[in-house]
Design brief:
There is one protein chain. With 363 residues, this protein is α/β, with parallel strands linked by helices. It is built from 14 helices and twelve strands. The chain folds into two domains: 265 residues, TIM Barrel (Alpha-Beta Barrel), CATH 3.20.20; 57 residues, no CATH class. It has an eight-stranded parallel beta sheet with strand order 9-6-5-4-3-2-1-10. Bound molecules: glyoxylic acid and magnesium ion (MG).
Length: 363
């Protein structure tokens, strides 16, 4: 197989298309709020949501009925043309590459609203070939439309083959912005035996060993603690590593039990701790959860700034509250401090909270 020369990745794939980016901007995207542009009630609320959420995403794929596919596409064009999105990003999720709708999605959206679309989410990505297809098509459409900024691609990790190919997907194009976990489609594709959209399952657990009686016999019917395990740990961790390797961003995906805000917050926090930068929101109340979870806490930032101040030039080791801190823990703290700065720049309420933290001596 002949490989493309590294330098050629940064040439546009069509004459006149914008030059590919060399780095994906770290724009805050704690919540990607999904709306159905064919649902007029939902669509009418979108302009008022600008500034209240990091990303608004016009969904054209699953959850939009086949009869409404065209109305959704046209609705998205109308909303995008009529709305000034200010600091809020506009994304869309196009239909799957094997569907009869996706070609019209791309050939309609790019000329009509390509200057407003930041990211196109591509579902059910299987391998690099899917990204190459969209990459070239976007370049042709951008060139034709005279766009000056490349539209980025975000892939949903929701097929077994996609998970197996996750690294080549991340590295398939300089347009790759990030990946989301798609737990519902992935469960179906893998033939997992769940019937939920994301989250845990009471059957996926580990159980404490049985206590023993005086003769040493196991009391298997005795009360024993059980702990639910995280069905998504493996895939999220694999996704985070692939994204970090390629300088792009990992996200959790949908959490379908809208009423269970507690378990939703837990799922989001697991993803945040493992390295994800954001998640999807399927209901306005999930926006608040995502914004809270994917913003470092005031306590973490206070601690991180203390470590940064104490570590001086960043080498050596210091003791803080009985714990050893060194170059590596400093680097972890800097991840949080940098993220806090990016978020404070777009979230005045958060900025106030971070600004109110007492500055440690020497900082
Ligand atoms: C999202 O699209 C999912 O399938 O979970
Ligand atoms: Mg899906």
């Amino acid at each position: 197989m002949s490989h493309k020369s590294p330098k050629d990745f940064f040439r546009p794939l069509a004459v006149g298309a914008p030059a590919p980016l060399r780095e994906i901007p770290a724009r805050p995207s704690r919540a990607i709020h999904f709306f159905d542009p064919s649902n007029e009630k939902m669509a009418a609320k979108i302009p008022a949501m600008v500034g209240t959420v990091d990303v608004l995403l016009g969904n054209l794929e699953d959850a939009v009925k086949a009869d409404n596919k065209e109305a959704a596409r046209e609705g998205l064009v109308r909303i995008a043309q009529a709305t000034d999105f200010g600091p809020t990003q506009l994304w869309t999720r196009i239909n799957a590459l094997d569907s009869p709708w996706v070609l019209d999605d791309l050939t309609t959206l790019v000329p009509a609203i390509g200057d407003k679309l930041d990211v196109i989410m591509v579902p059910k990505v299987q391998g690099a070939e899917d990204i190459h297809y969209v990459d070239r098509l976007l370049a042709q459409l951008e060139a034709k439309a005279g766009l000056t900024r490349p539209i980025l691609i975000h892939a949903i990790l929701e097929t077994a083959r996609g998970v197996a190919n996750v690294e080549e997907i991340c590295g398939a194009s300089p347009r790759m912005q990030g990946l989301s976990l798609g737990p519902a489609d992935l469960a179906a594709d893998r033939k997992m035996k769940t019937t939920r959209v994301g989250g845990g399952h009471p059957g996926y657990l580990v159980r404490q060993d049985p206590p023993r009686d005086a003769e040493g016999a196991a009391q298997i019917d005795a009360q024993r603690s059980i702990f639910q395990q995280d069905l998504w740990h493996y895939t999220i961790a694999k996704m985070v590593d692939a994204c970090a390797t390629h300088g792009i961003y990992p996200y959790y995906g949908p959490f379908g039990d809208i009423a269970d805000v507690v378990a939703c917050e837990d799922q989001f926090r697991n993803a945040f701790l493992l390295g994800c930068v954001g998640t999807w929101s399927l209901h306005p109340k999930q926006i608040a959860i995502a914004n809270r979870v994917f913003s470092p806490s005031v306590e973490d930032i206070a601690h991180a700034r203390r470590v940064v101040a104490a570590m001086g030039d960043g080498t050596g080791a210091v003791m803080i509250d009985g714990k050893m801190e060194d170059d590596a823990s400093l680097k972890q703290c800097l991840v949080l401090v940098d993220l806090a700065e990016e978020l404070a720049a777009i979230d005045p309420e958060l900025k106030k909270q971070y600004d109110a933290i007492e500055t440690p001596e020497g900082a």
